[in-house]
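2024-03-11 09:14:02 DEBUG pipeline.ingest accepted 1 chain
2024-03-11 09:14:02 DEBUG pipeline.ingest length=180
2024-03-11 09:14:03 DEBUG pipeline.predict start
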Amino acid sequence: AAIRAWVVAGSALAADRVIWSLGKRCPPSPYIHMRVRVRSVGRDGVFATVNPTPTLGNDAVYNVRGDRQLVLTLQCFAAEESSGERAPEEILNDVLTSATLPTVREELNVARVGVLSSGDITAVDSVIDSVYFEPRAFVEIRLSTISGLSQTGPAIDNVTVHGDVNGPDINLDFTVGPPP
C-alpha cells in the first residue's frame, strides 16, 4: 500500500490511474502500470521467543525474517505531448523525485521499504506504418524490505528418559530435544 501511495502522490495522478499488473483493465491515459519482482537476499534467520499467551504445545513463537530486494517496474502511458499533457518521462521523473519528500519517506519507512536505486527512464513510444502509438516510458526501481512470518509451537519437541533401578539407587538419563 505504501509503494502505491508513493506512486500516486509522486505522479499526481488519480488513485484509479495507478494500477498493479493483476489483469485489471487499463484506465484511459495517463496511467501508470506497476509490476514487482521479489528476490531473497542471503538466508532467512529463525529465532524463538516465549509465547506471551502460551497454550499446551504452543509455548514458543518461531519467527522467520529475511531481507528482500524488490524490483518495481513502472510503465507510464500518457497522451501525446502536443496535447499539453505531461510526457510519461516527466511523470515518472516526478515519482522518482518525490521519494525524497519527508512525507513519502516516512510512509515508506513505516512500511519498512527503502529505495535503493533506479535505472534510467526510457521512452518507448513508436510509429509503425505511420501509426503513432501512445507515448510511454518505463523505469525500474530497486527497493529493499524485510519479509517475516511467525508461528507458535512447542518449546521442547521431545523428552527421552532412560533409566535403571539397582537396588535402592535409581539412575536416570534425560535427553531433551528442541524443536527443529
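2024-03-11 09:14:41 DEBUG pipeline.report Residues 88-98 form the longest helix (11 residues).
2024-03-11 09:14:41 DEBUG pipeline.predict end
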